[in-house]
Amino acid sequence: MRKDDVHAVASAPAEARTGRRGLLFVLSAPSGTGKTTLVGGLVERVPDLVRSRSYTSRGARPGEVDGVDYHFVAPARFRDMIAAGAFLEWADVFGRLYGTGAAETERCRAAGRDVVLVIDVQGARQVRRRVQDAVSVFALPPSFEVLEERLRGRGREAAGGSDLERRLRTARREVAMIDEYDYVVVNDEVDACVDRLRHIVLAERSRAAAMRERTRGIVETFRTVDSPLQRTGAD
Ligand code: 5GP
Fold first, then answer.
1. Ligand 1 mean position to 123 CA, how many Å?
2. For residue 37, what is the domain's CATH number?
3. What's the whole-model pTM score?
4. What is the pLDDT of residues 111-145, one digit of tens each?
5. Beta 55-56 vs 71-72: how paired, if at all?
């Protein structure tokens, strides 16, 4: 079973997990920021955190595997899924449809696993509306120039042209929405950035509300367990 596989763990018994409902994290970043690498490093370093696998109507790129990188589905099937309310959120990105399966996400959270969605700004907005306690993070490249350089360096944008221009235009629009997010990290250096993401997850896990299931038993002992000192009246 892949450690970062949302589907494989969704059926794991709740008692084997953290004893609480999983948290929902959303990560958005302009294309070329390195969010795939960041989230890969994050789920590797943080136990009980899984990355959600999205559905998309776009075709698989060389090296991408159905059911691993995405669930690749025909546009008509995607539309049917929208009509059936199968998505927690969905969006049209660069003319292709992308969405997060509602049932998989829910099963995973119910089993006590924290889930991270790597989705665009439109999807993030929908999740924030529907899931009050979702935690959203925006990853920024160090600068616009660095992003452009990185995109130019990538194989499929190497020729430059309209695809590159579209991604840069989209990046400007996405960065304008940064204030809607709970946290921001700058991907200046991958390891350091993954570590900052890790700290965000750990901090959110330590919120009193997130800790309630775990702390209930401990707090209860403060009400019910007798201290030998108190029994002898030494306090
Ligand atoms: P790509 O086709 O390069 O893998 O992804 C293009 C964009 O779609 C990225 O910004 C990515 O974050 C976004 N994306 C991937 N999956 C989802 C999803 O399930 N929902 C939304 N709203 N965006 C997604």
1. 9
2. 3.40.50.300
3. 0.89
4. 999 999 999 999 999 999 999 999 999 999 999 99
5. parallel
